[in-house]
Write a structure and sequence with these properties.
single chain; mainly alpha; about 0% strand; rod-shaped; IF_rod_dom; coiled coil; structural constituent of skin epidermis; IF rod domain-containing protein
């Protein structure tokens, strides 16, 4: 809008400059014609000193002088009319120029007021990125200047960042009974057997472990 107004002002200023030049030219033409008319009026008639046909010379000279005087007066009248028209156009252009200057001053004051209001408000606090209907919490950013990471400074007041979740602990399931039975049976078979009587001999190394009593075994199918 301001650029269009400036272009219009420049165009009208150029028109005013041309109008001034035209007025100066018309004023010079008026002055020149006025001098010529005054000179024609004050010029002495040379017919009085003529020797032959004084009447004809007087009539021809007077007719030519009157024709020249009429032409000069008509040219002077046209120059005055042109000057009046140029003055009217000049006044209209001046009125338009004043109106455009007033509009430019108004827009300049509005822009200065807006800039001062933005400076008083300071940096803009976190702004939402309007990329979807429900932006996530990580889409909130704040202005820290060029080349500065948002994590290099504490977040502004009122900005809630997402809390980190604690690591999950893996729950250890209890061992199934059929998995515990072989271990318990192996532990019992490895224990020394109590033998009664003097003729008891130690068990050979390649002897297989005896199966425990059925009532004490948790899972008899694991016994051989």
């Amino acid at each position: 809008m301001c650029e269009e107004i400036k272009a219009t002002v420049q165009k009208h200023a150029q028109s005013l400059r041309h109008s001034k030049e035209e007025l100066n030219r018309l004023n010079q033409a008026i002055q020149r014609l006025t001098v010529e008319v005054d000179g024609a009026k004050s010029q002495p008639c040379e017919l009085e000193t003529a020797k032959d046909s004084p009447a004809l010379q007087e009539e021809g000279a007077s007719g030519s002088a009157k024709g020249k005087l009429a032409w000069l007066e008509a040219a002077l009248q046209r120059a005055k009319q042109d000057m009046v028209r140029q003055l009217r156009e000049y006044q209209e252009l001046m009125i338009v120029k004043l109106g455009l200057d007033f509009e430019i001053a108004t827009y300049r004051k509005l822009l200065e007021g807006e800039e001062s209001r933005i400076r008083e408000q300071g940096p803009v606090c976190p702004s939402r990125q309007l990329q979807g209907p429900r932006p996530s919490q990580w889409s909130l950013v704040w202005d820290l200047g060029p080349g500065v990471s948002p994590w290099a400074a504490p977040p502004p007041a009122g900005l809630a960042l997402p809390r980190a979740r604690p690591p999950r602990r893996r729950r250890r399931l209890p061992r199934a009974p059929w998995r515990r039975a072989p271990l318990a049976a192996a532990a019992r078979s490895a224990a020394p057997l109590a033998v009664s009587g003097p003729s008891a001999a130690p068990a050979p190394a390649d002897a297989k472990p005896s199966c425990p009593a059925p009532e004490k075994s948790r899972n008899p199918r694991f016994c051989s």
